[in-house]
Design a protein that fits this description.
Elements lengths: L4 H14 L3 E3 L2 H20 L1 H18 L3 E3 H6 L3 H14 L8 H10 L1 H17 L6
Antiparallel strand pairs: 1-2
Helix pairs in contact: 1-5, 2-3, 5-7, 6-7
Length: 136
């Protein structure tokens, strides 16, 4: 039995939420730049101890100002119907060698076999990075 796009969406959303998968939307580079600038400025003003002060202050500043680290399950909820169909197709391909009849059976397989869950996690990561153009 092939799961519907909606069933695949539910499964992938649950796994993404359970595993706390998050994506960065180029915020890592911006945060690194903020920290680096703070380190340089404090180093110039305070000398060698300024590197420590700048690193801590820059890290706090970067953390407080970055808001684009998003949970993957939120991105999955915002998918278009076309993206959901594509995810379903990839899901069916990735799980073609696994025998299951319905969603409940598949969820039981995932709970009992870490390998099945890892297949779904890798599928989610690949889909989010290749089709949705986000970084994990």
């Amino acid at each position: 039995m092939v799961l519907s796009a909606e069933e695949v969406h539910k499964i992938t959303s649950v796994v993404a939420q359970e595993e706390n998968l998050r994506v960065t939307v180029s915020e890592s580079l911006k945060g690194g730049l903020k920290v680096g600038l703070c380190v340089v400025a404090c180093g110039l003003l305070l000398g060698p101890p300024g590197f420590i002060v700048g690193g801590v202050a820059g890290g706090i500043y970067a953390t407080c100002t970055s808001k684009k680290f998003r949970p993957v399950h939120e991105l999955l909820a915002e998918m278009t119907p076309e993206q959901r169909r594509l995810l379903q197709k990839r899901f069916v391909e990735a799980t073609s060698n696994i025998s299951y009849g319905d969603v409940a059976t598949f969820l039981a397989l995932m709970a009992g076999d870490g390998g099945v869950k890892m297949i779904v996690i890798q599928l989610i990561k690949d889909f989010v990075t290749s089709e949705m153009k986000h970084r994990m």
